[in-house]
Write the structure tokens for this entry.
Amino acid sequence: MNTDCLVAVFDSKELAQQAVHVLDRGDFPTDQVSLVATGLPDPPHLAEDLSLQDDSGRAAAIGAGLGAIVGVLAGIAVTMVSGLGLVFLAGPIGGGLVGATTGGFLGGLSGWGVHGERIRHYEKLVKAGKVLVIAHGNPGELARAQRMLGETNPDEMHMYGAADTEVPGAGV
Amino acid sequence: MAHDAFCQRLQRAVGILVSEKDRVKERLLVAYASQLSNVDPARDVPEALLGEFDEIRYALSDAGMPYGYGEHAARKLNNMTEDEASQLARRIFALSLRAQERISASV
């Protein structure tokens, strides 16, 4: 399994959705794409739906918050972060949620080579309302993703390798 | 990427321009970022089409160009009028047709 990843930061959910759409149309495997967002409209009764594990209510609520992304990315998890509210994790990063509870809500990024200081940086950005689009894959796939996402003008973008090092010059 | 792959990229870009429902600027961004940004002009584009492709590319993104201002497609499109964006879309259609004609003529 490839553990390199590319993290792009966007100012809004709409811009991030557009970036995911670009990756999808560019044939980047969407099961290798994740999106992290908060500050979405809090659908009525979502907290109750989650606690009751009411899948239909949960799916409808998530759809209301993330729109078409629901149909593109593989799986969605929602977590309640103290002092922040609901955080949506769409795509494979949602699968790392349980293991991430001790390392903050983005602790799952460590499995893709993002080190602790950068994870905290991204958590701060998400708390400030930014939206993350994360692609993981082999270096060739990520170079293509970087080229495509670069055109969508993210606030910042960095590539990380399995050796837990930031790729020099990969930022925007 | 061979010339026929370039042709396919153009066709897919045209497909995005005609099939999606967003504003033309948004469609252009998706078409450029997902398809045309992956074209290597020196390797992929037939010489007869290179000038037109370079002009379209420069109008949409000069980030990778040595004589550009480092502006990516999202920023360039944001500064463009709807008419300018529509004109660019038409140029991509026309270039796609020319590329297809070249492929057809060579078989």
Q: What stands out?
A: The interface with chain B takes residues 18, 21-26, 144, 147-153 of chain A (CB under 8 Å). Confidence is low (pLDDT under 50) at residues 98-102, 164-170 of chain A. The first strand of chain A starts at residue 4 and ends at 10.
